[in-house]
Amino acid sequence: MIPRAAIEEILFRADIVDTISSYVTLKRAGSNFGGLCPFHSEKTPSFTVFPGTRSFYCFGCGAGGDVITFVMRAENLDYPSAVEFLAQRVGITIDHEDKNATGALVNRKRVYEMNLEAAKFFRQCLFDPALGEPGMQYFRSRGLSSTVIKRFGLGYAPSDFGLLTRHMLSKGFGEEELVTGFLCGKSQKTGRAYDYFRGRVMFPIIDTTGNVIAFGGRVLDDSKPKYLNSSDTPGFKKSRNLFALNYAKDECSEQMILCEGYMDVIALHAAGFGNAVATLGTAITGEQARIMAKYTKKVIISYDSDEAGQRAANRAMQLLGEVGLDVRVLKMHGAKDPDEYIRKFGADRFRHLLGQSKTGFEYKMENILAKYNITAPDEKIKASGELCNIIASVPSAAEREVYIGRASSALSITSDALKSDVERQRRKLIREQRKNESREALNTAKNYGDRVNTDAVKNVAANSAEETILGLILTYEEHREAIASGKIPLCAEDFFTDLGKRIFEAVMELHNNNEPFDPAYLGERFTPKEIGRITKYKIDRGQLTQNGADVLQGAVEKLKSEKMREEEKKGGDKFASLRRKQQLARDLKNKNSNS
Question: Are residues 69 and 149 both part of a single domain?
Fold first, then answer.
């Protein structure tokens, strides 16, 4: 385990404001700092850093905790890896008490070690004439030079079921490690390990610190799937990474080009556009949009020109716009993707095309006008309806005015008529939004949709009592001591929700540890989302003026009463209510005798 002294030193040296400032633009707000949350899309800041308690909390999405929890979420790390990350940042060497106890940390590093060795193997195979000719022939046909191939670490996985596996075993890696790292699978029939990537050209995915974190492999024939990508591993989460960001991060401060595929990105880099990146075999995610917002001001979407590419572009525009990026879309004619366009027309034409990239509205309007024959009245009405729906969803009145003018000119319909339709549609959207917000608020009040504490919805009163108790014992030593001494009778079995029970047990265990109590050590036992909920309990109590012993006692009595009531329902015992009252009376008597 990581020694407690090391964690204390890291928490002391890794100033939470300085650390978070490297990810989020913070502005002082009194004694605290605020900014846009890096964990969900928002335009109004709801993310707060509290230097006094060395914690953070987002009042929008519920993310919260200390500097270790923040790094866990921001860098997709487990607890030991986040501690190690911060230790390196502040110059601390951790002397692990038991390296085997930090299996997740070893696994993460081991995945990186395995991937690096596998990348070297794939590259050797590519440059071996006896093994790699199919792969080399493919890359040459796509116009890639040896310099570009080496720059991106491209490789080839031969059509052999065990070549990579045998090589990796000879280097000291085990079969289970290779399965965990998504480099080999196991046959259900024979139980034998086999190479996961076979007969494919290989694209290593490299993070911004230079680690090989995953692979993408492309077939050389028409077999399916065309692309095979690493699944999530202890060292990789595809929704939080971008291909070629390790290079693009240094050249994209003004704008970034977002592509669909590896070859598009490589072709763009080879042609001098070093600010290109791609998602990893999936549609863009909100996490990827927030990553891009850390590095650039503007994103030009350069997706395939087919129908699927257009749908993906619409989704990307929405997510990128939500994180405050200036979004443009590239419209290519005569080629289906950037790779083909550059090979056919050259880099200068593509550079000129970038300058003509369109705003999201222009792109959508072009697609709508191409879909309908607006010389026909019925089709003009349909096109007008779609355009009005799009304009109605725009928050800015000035922006809506501009778009109405564009649509009016394109459709030969008066601006006043279109504006009337837009405003009617906007009122409808606002009504629906308010209705949804009202429903969401009601459900939240009843704890519906709570994914962190799924038991909360089963008994609202019991959960409320638990939150009061947990907030008090997380904040005040005297309340922990009152429970530890038996002055206030309460045990884990009195809790209704599993989360509440686990937090209570962990808090009291820390309290009874004969060392200063610090909620930071809860990070080893709870997920980042659960730590966010724990942080909320503390913040909620801190905003209240009544936090004395009578509040704790009342919450304990309420919790026990609700717990007994639930047991009555399950057992159908007609005398349970009487026993509940007798038990509460005994508890009150014990409390008075201990006072």
Answer: no
How confident is the model at residue 100, as a pLDDT?
Answer: 37
**First-to-last CA distance in the chain?**
40
In a domain, 30, yes or no: yes
Rounded alpha-carbon distances, angstroms, from residue 228 to 110, 144, 202, 358, 469: 22, 21, 10, 32, 50
| CATH code of the domain covering residue 182 | 3.90.980.10
Q: How far apart are CA 488 and CA 317, in angstroms?
A: 56
Question: Distance between CA 84 and CA 82 in Å, rounded?
Answer: 5
Tokens of 237: 């989460």
Same domain for 381 and 432, yes or no, is: yes
What range does the domain containing 76 cover? 4-97
Do residues 342 and 330 lie in contact, with contact meaning Cβ atoms separated by under 8 Å?
Answer: no
Domain assignment of residue 280, yes or no: yes
Question: Is 259 domain-assigned?
Answer: yes
Report residue 469 as tokens.
């108790």
Does the CA dihedral 551-507-21-246 come out positive or negative? negative
Q: In terms of domains, do 572 and 478 share one?
A: yes
Using DSSP, state whether 229 is helix, strand or coil.
strand
Pick the closest to residue 316 from 328, 331, 334 (CA basis). Answer: 328
Sign of CA pseudo-dihedral 319, 324, 325, 330: positive
The pTM assigned to this predicted structure is 0.67
Contacts of 498 (CB under 8 A, 6+ apart): 455
What pLDDT does 224 receive?
86
Mean pLDDT by 10 residues, the chain (595 residues): 78 91 91 91 90 91 94 86 89 61 55 95 96 96 95 96 96 92 89 93 93 95 89 84 93 93 95 95 82 89 83 88 86 89 94 90 89 92 93 86 93 94 91 72 59 82 92 91 92 92 92 77 87 92 86 93 80 54 60 56
Interacting residues of 28 by C-beta distance below 8 A, sequence separation 6+ = none
Q: How many domains does the chain have?
A: 5
3-state secondary structure 251-312: CCCCCEEEECCHHHHHHHHHCCCCCEEECCCCCCCHHHHHHHHHHCCEEEEECCCCHHHHHH
Answer for the pair 125, 91: CB distance below 8 angstroms, yes or no: no
Q: Let me know whether 559 and 540 are in one domain.
A: yes
Task: Please check whether residue 365 lies inside any domain of the structure.
Answer: no
Domain end, chosen from 199, 218, 236, is at: 236
In a shared domain, residues 195 and 112: yes
Which amino acid does the sequence have at 41?
S
